Amino acid sequence: MHTAQHLTRLLLCSTLATSLLPLAAHGDQLYRWSDADGNVHYSDRLDPAHLEQGYRVISRQGTTLYTIESVTEQMAESSKAPEQQAEAKQRQAQLSRDRALLRTYANEAEINDARARKLSHLESLLGATEHAMRRLEERLHELSRKAGDYERTGKRAPEGLRQELAQTQDKLEHYQQTLAEQQDNRLSIQQQFDADLQRYREITAALPQPLTIRP
Question: What is the pTM of this model?
Fold first, then answer.
């Protein structure tokens, strides 16, 4: 937006600066321009009123020497620049990821081995979390039973029992959240390795194959 406004200001300043006199081409040059109705005109002078529509400077033989785009065209071109820059950054980022992939793995088997190692480690963490949750669930059940015994006799459970019950419940909720995160991480790892393997196949398929010489 800033670039487009800058171009517009420059063009308006140019128009104001030349508004008193029409533009005159060199003796061997002509202006080719179109009016608002699309009619094409040739002249050795260009009225500043037509600057916004753009024009060409041509030789007497009809060769285009250079072109001044209309304000609309210049603004459209300037608006493309951020998009083109973003696309270039995306291509560069993909190229960097591809290079890293080729440096990290020599073949598909290494990708599968790395996946297996990472998932095996994560499965160990999941097992430890599930074991801790079972222990907490057992303890929570026992504490709840004791608190219920007090309530059935019309007594209030001791402060220490109530605090341990609340703390155990908090720990169990924490481990439940940890388990959900670990499960999400496992799915993410599987998806990432699937994508890496697919991309590795695409890259290596496009690379030149070594020449095999048979005896």
Answer: 0.56
Q: How far apart are CA 98 and CA 104, in angstroms?
A: 10
CA 14 to chain centre: 40
Below-70 pLDDT ranges, the chain: 1-28, 45-52, 66, 68, 70-81, 207-215
Give helix 71-104 / helix 2-17 axis angle, nearest 10°.
Answer: 150
* CB half-sphere exposure, 95, CA atoms < 13 A: 6
* Number of residues that make up the chain: 215
| DSSP assignment letter at 44 | S
Ranges of each domain in the chain? 2-73, 99-206
Per-residue pLDDT tens over the stretch 46-100: 565 565 677 777 777 777 776 767 666 666 666 666 777 788 888 888 888 888 9
- The full 3-state SS of 90-159, as one line of letters, equals HHHHHHHHHHHHHHHCCCHHHHHHHHHHHHHHHHHHHHHHHHHHHHHHHHHHHHHHHHHHHHHCCCCCCH
| Distance in angstroms (rounded) separating the CA atoms of residues 71 and 61 | 27
99-206: CATH topology is Helix Hairpins (1.10.287)
What 8-state DSSP symbol labels residue 28?
Answer: T
**N-term to C-term CA, the chain:** 66
CA-to-CA dists, residue 48 to 12, 21, 34, 45, angstroms: 10, 8, 13, 9
One-letter amino acid at 39 equals N
